[in-house]
């Protein structure tokens, strides 16, 4: 069995990234239920994210989303983050909310719209320069709703041209990560619908381009851990967007729908070196929970990732490999399940204590009074949401 | 082969219902792309719906949605409809956009919220009284996002209690139709997720309660025509919400994603008497197309339903039954496909001509100048959308 | 928190049923990989099943499958079971392997074939009489492969007529349970494709007819625990066929693909009284694992059901209900997850010790030498499989 | 609109490949229903395939499957084909029916098993040499049933090593095409589960390796025409396995489940040059219909491919591109649908007449007396099936 202190060391070194928009209002097409106390600007979002890190000790990074997190002075924003004990993580582009992007952005049939989209991506790289972020995270809503609406291959050509331009703009220590998604908001064809498409483009672009795996962006029945393992084997896994789904891209709390799947995914990460910082995999949470309290839900998600990580670190890899080599189906499966069935909550509570944290992050957050404080303080102004 | 004049007579008698909200802005959670010229109130929605009927001759009914279509004087609204040559169809309730409904409406754990929801449903029946509508169309967004969030059985009890109250309020010639939906906006459990749940409730409620089949509300692989056939056999099919989907509840134009499925569904309708007015099946389009022009898309959908109907009316039923009885798999399938493979557009153009309409409804609409007129006229005010 | 001794008492009272065919060879359409030592007749199948009960103490029932388990003297078979310490459970009919059943059995267009199918079902009831089994378990492969092949409604009529005949034949303490399945082996329409269809028929048949939920027989995204809860609320849940699936009806070991789903299902069972013997729910395993050793895989599945049961018994129901009533989404979810995250293996090992069993059933089975014995003894004859 | 004579010329030049195993018995894991008159050896399979070509004029190629089609003298088999007016198409390997392949073939943990698998593939290349076939078609059933059973990455390494060995063996004018499949017979992980995996391996192997798209091998909701378009853009589409599915890999007649999807796929083929012989795309039917007559079902499938091809050739591409460039969603969609809605059966009947064939291939086959002849003649011997 793995050495407990090594397990703890690995857990302590874990860095989970939370999304600034996860602290803002979000919802479904039917309704966005606003919550009292949600942030009104990027500074307040960072403050909330800092609470998650304060409670868990493993969430020091915060993803930004442009234009939602546009500010006048990005240096000031980065300094604000540092003061709060967190850092700016990836810069997420948004080419789906401008009226011009109704029929797409980088793959739009009109060259003028594509130029506008590329200009936005260039602005995101500028923000990387200004904030010290090393990653441009690209998700394109581009696609079509009806057969015949546009030419699938022509859209790939335009997409690649735009990606190439932006790739050329990246600095020496910067990179781009390209997310794929089966569907939504496009309902017939999506221009980057699966890992194969993202991988093929990244391969052509070069070593600074890698694939993002959002756990909610697959067809039913897709074996996500296979994709993760494959991309790690190819050195092309750039980042995770963790969240949960029962049906489509439900964006629920991480580990809430299928904790065993999260475990299997992280088992592939652990087994294939994905937790090594050298591999450069970003572990981001991309959830847009809309009926439960924002900060506690994020803490819960961070804890769920931690628990799954602890379990995969407890897998007895030598025993697993021996059983696998012997073709012992039940034995190999049992080795994996032994780790999954372990209750790692006491181990994590001990770890937190060693890190000077409360054994129970949610209790600590509740006790902090922060929730009441933001409700009282954040009066007036416009609450942040997907549209702002 | 069926008699062409009988086919035309049946097609001429067809009444398709369009949704008032299909003329307003709609979109995805990512973005609602507003369109110039969309209606600003229910009167303008009816005017647009009347254009669809004027062009096609088979869309005389318009569904209302409350509170989106709330007006001071429903009698005036009904009179307005009559002046335009259309009629008010079903009254659709909405218990998903009030902040109180965050955790549900009729199935909410809090009795006060449930009372509010029931009061809204009662208002809808009042509107039926005022407009002469005979159908209350119920879709509940109720459900939960997380395992454990609420008790599945308790929610059923509350749901049934509310339905019973409203059922008791129905007048002699009024009825309720209950829609089911697999998921969205609830992501873990939905309180009326499938036809079985709707059917079981309707059976207990009584003969005035029937099931609504929305073609976009099923799990992948569900055989929708089986459900339609089964409900017709039981006398429990109340209405259709037609639309298209490739993935989830995409709400695209009817017949755009899988025209053969639409044909198979309508074949069951035809074969089992569902086109008889006595059966009381409402044929509504419930599409929320968001990137294409509103009125032409609705005309196209109506035409697609018409074409599929024409094809199923051409099925050689005696030949089909003979092949089925003989266990002739290929032969029976071939009879069905012969009808499907037929190009019915000339037949429908002839029919329109006989009805005094243009042979090409879309061309007629384009030539009418209506599209330009509403863009010019409807300036100022607030455009209607899902939220208004 | 629940009282540990009450939890143990409930676990000790649990009765899980294993399928005779789970000890025989099975496979996919591509290949059946035969295993040395598998039974050659029903007596040997019972002997293997008795090993599973001996190791776990909670698997005293064995389902039979006719004609695979046809014997000359069913009294002798029942006595054999009793000698081995197990009992005959449900009698499973088979109307899918006779050449006459190519286009269906009870729903076949030809009345002669339907009569043959009904005669088989009557034989199954005779076997219930002879063995003391109280349940006829019905699964029909009936359906069609092509649109138009047969009439969906006519097939329902035939199906119901056959069910009614068999229902009338049931003795006072006998019942029938009707299984549904989305697809396979029929690929276009299936005559009992979902719980709604089974429920509607059972309702008409009467109180002796109940629904079987096979956990592998649903469309992707179906919330199975909702169905279970709904059927328990209606008093119509007759039995489970437990197994695991990632894609279709994979028939893997129970709990191997989604242990959290198994927990959620059993949570609904526990909360709604489904573990009470009075409810009459049969907890059968229906797995056809084909690459791993038969008996150990069955033991593992029984243990997985036990572990999931132990977890649901540990759910703090009063706390859960309080959080649910308060609309505390995160709190209610957390109560459920606390139970799921608990490692119940020590509790179950203690229970086994108290029951006079080995703490580790799989180790006990391995130590017994039974596996080697059957390989050595069962030489010659024809191995049992799906076809024999 | 396209020139009718050009359309006819293209249709006449079409070469569809049928699978030898499509003439033999096949079925589901529940039952293989044997048919009178099915072939007993590869020579008889070719004779049946020749009937399909005789009736349709566009099915001159026959895929072989080794070992099912193993013969002593492959030269004699090829000569027999030539005499019948057909040619040997692709050689399909089989590494899933030997007992040694229970846990995989080229990805098996045991090197000895892998060597055996590679030896089989080499034999297939030998058969290519002997028959003049230019394509090795590879589908691997390799995968695992349980999490932990084997190492996903290690299996990729072994797979690639085997592929590389075989690739090196290919002659100058030979190539390999690698098929992917979501699941079945492996139920947890499949070693080549999606197009991305096949593409990544083919890219590394070199220009002689291309991807096979089997239309039944995808997760629900997958946009297959996107994959086809993408692979054509990359020059990596090697072959199609056409068939139909409603649920999983149902292997029904081509075009029977979703004729519009078949049309969309072939539209991408047409638009992207895939019908040019230079592109080297093989258009194979891989159906295993099990309840309908073998030869007529194959004729029907060939006709369905022909009809879909005719429709895509009728697409007004200049009009389509103009509407796409203008962002005219409804207009572009309408151009595509105009072609789909056309009844091309008269055009194809005319073409057949011009080719000296009967206007109705199925009627011609029925009139030929072949069906009765093979039932009468093929008495004794062992019928061919998946296992022989």
Automatic annotation (TrEMBL), chains A, B, C, D:
The keyword rRNA-binding does not apply. GO terms for molecular function: L-rhamnose isomerase activity; metal ion binding. InterPro entries: L-rhamnose_isomerase, Rhamnose_iso-rel, Rhamnose_isomerase, Xyl_isomerase-like_sf. Gene3D superfamilies: Divalent-metal-dependent TIM barrel enzymes. It comes from Catenulispora acidiphila (strain DSM 44928 / JCM 14897 / NBRC 102108 / NRRL B-24433 / ID139908). It comes from the Bacteria. Pfam families: RhaA (PF06134). GO terms for biological process: L-lyxose metabolic process; rhamnose catabolic process. Keywords: Cytoplasm, Isomerase, Manganese, Metal-binding, Rhamnose metabolism. This is L-rhamnose isomerase. The keyword Metal-binding applies.
